[in-house]
Specification:
Order of helices and strands: EEHHH
Number of domains: 2
Number of strands: 2
Strand order of the largest sheet: 1-2
Distance between the termini: 47 Å
Structural class: mainly alpha
Helix content: 40-55%
Largest sheet: 2 strands, antiparallel
Shape: flat
Radius of gyration: 18 Å
Length: 100
């Protein structure tokens, strides 16, 4: 027997609103003002990077210039498809986890 959801939003609890992926409910982060909106860890990291990039554009700093270099290197790697290569791809993905 299947339980019937009490509201239409309960059926969307396991979907990321950014990428549309299906995740366990404890693997999603809900936005404070909009608890119906949930994003996965990957999308949350992406959104955080975009917010930091916007803040760096508004106010220049040495750390912001360093993050800009990291963003340019990341774009260079993705443009050439190096992140999809069998040997170097996983290494680049691992390194990317520790970069701003």
């Amino acid at each position: 027997m299947t339980a019937i959801p009490e509201s239409p939003l309960e059926t969307l609890d396991d979907l990321c609103w950014c990428c549309g992926g299906t995740f366990a409910q404890d693997a999603l982060w809900h936005l404070g003002a909009h608890p119906e909106v949930a994003v996965c860890a990957g999308c949350a990291r992406y959104l955080s990077r975009r917010a930091t990039e916007a803040a760096d554009r508004r106010q220049a700093s040495a750390a912001g210039r360093g993050r800009a270099v990291v963003r340019r290197v990341r774009a260079f790697v993705v443009q050439r498809g190096w992140h999809e290569r069998r040997v170097i791809g996983p290494v680049l993905s691992w390194i990317d986890r520790f970069l701003p």
